[in-house]
Specification:
alpha+beta, 8 helices
Amino acid sequence: MRWLRWVLLALAMVMVPAGVVSADAPGPTDFESMIVDVTADGADGVPDTFSIKVEGIDSFLWLDVEPGSTAAIPGYDAEPYLRIEADCSVWQNRLSWSAWYNEDRYGDVVRPDFVDSDAAPEWEQIDDDCSVAWHDHRIHWMEQSPPIGAEAGDAIISSLVPFNVDGVDVSVRVESTLQPSPSLRPSIAGLIIGVAVVAAVLVFGGRHIAAATLWLGAVALMALVVGVVTYVTTPSDTGPDPRWWVLPLAAFIGCGLGVMLERSGRWFWANGALLVSGVVLGVWVWDRRTGLWRALIPSPWPGAVDRVVTAGVAVAASAAIIGAVAVLVNPRAVRSGR
């Protein structure tokens, strides 16, 4: 019995904190930023040794150069900020305010005392793949809500972002446009499907913990597939969030443990595994909640599919938590199988 306590405790410690640690990965948004023009100073025009694009819908600018080429990206005060060397190493000036201000999508950071854009750069290597992505606050709206009076289709931002490639000064113009609100039908469909599955489990599985745990494990597996595909298709330079797949994986493992515990007669610990797994999936849903009402979701899945899954998992997690707590309040019903 003692080993079971330690297993469940470790499961809870691994799963729950992982869900509350903030990570600034691409997230749902009401705006779409697009590059509308790229120009260069000089008679030779724009070099063909680089590519630049918006990643995360409106979140990042991503610059990639060919091996052997160099790039320099100035900060907001025209100070040295980022550079890519010919050997593909990527460097960041830790004294640049831009290096810290760009850590958060909305610039919600505290300025370190040592930051000094006028000082000689202190370069630190951050990558070695000839590419870099950064939250450039000139390409996206910096508030959670759209501007007052703005309507879908309005261009909210139009700005130039300068950088240098192989000694040539280049400017990219980016426009960010407000998108129409998404339909509520996928979210409602997900809620209905979730309620229907819960009802089926209650009807055919009764109050047995194993039935509820198997059902929740299937839901966790579905969430895991969504999370893994989203994670692996998001460029690593934009910092994809491991919680997208770690949380449903942990919940799936917890459900498997719960089934084994219930079959060995340790229903109390099985119920604990069900409760913890439900809480962890609830955290996963909470992390993704804005996707239910934001216009665009940075995911390879169609927005409707993503919303159906999120809403369905929300119902499943809520039902598992409520059911597990009910068992703790009235354990005799489970023991007798009534």
